[in-house]
Amino acid sequence: MDSNDDVLAQLQASAAVGNPTSQADLLAQLNADPEPDPLAGVEYTGDLAADSDAELDALAKGFRERTKREDERFRLATDSEFWFAVCFKTRKDKDAFLAAARLLAVGDKYLDGYAVARVLGIPTLTEDDTDRKE
Which of 21, 73, 85, 104 lies at a 20 to 30 A Cα distance from 115? Predict the structure, then answer.
């Protein structure tokens, strides 16, 4: 790794955790599909009672599906087994370690593991890898 690669890795690592790190990431978020319309598949018959029942069934199904997605999002957001801590006796020692490891650009308390891996030159899964094995 030459010095330019090191600078590039530190610049990439300095992006805020959870925020888009490139224009492509930002565009992907802006162009993401909206939540599905639960009424999109309802076939209307012209019978008010039957159509109302169909809409209520579709809405109930939509709420159940949204609840499943939200339950998974909550599980991922509250999972505590994806991080670890490194501790020093003093702040000065911690800061010296981060500086020596060229990690201060990533942060000084909570560091994005993917950014740390990039700075340290460690090959790892990418943030958007959907084939992760737990």
Answer: 73
